[in-house]
Amino acid sequence: MNLESIVAGTRSGAGLFAMDDRALLEVRGEDRVRWLDGMISGDVQALEDAESGAGCYATLLTNRGAIVADLHVGRLGEVYVLESRRDQIPKIQETLERFIIADDVTLFDRSGDFEVLGLEGPRAVEVLESAIGARVDLLPESWAEFQVEGLPIRVGAFGFSGEEAVQIHVGAGDRRAVEQALEAAGRERGLIQGDAAALDVMRIEAGIPLLGAELDETVLPPEARLERAIATSKGCYVGQEIVARLRARGQVNHLLVGLRIEGETPPDVDTPLLCSGRGTGEVTSSGLSPTFGPIALGFVRREHSEVGTRVEFEGGTARVTALPFLSIDGIESSSSSADAENLDPVETN
Question: 293 and 257 in one domain?
Answer without folding.
Answer: yes
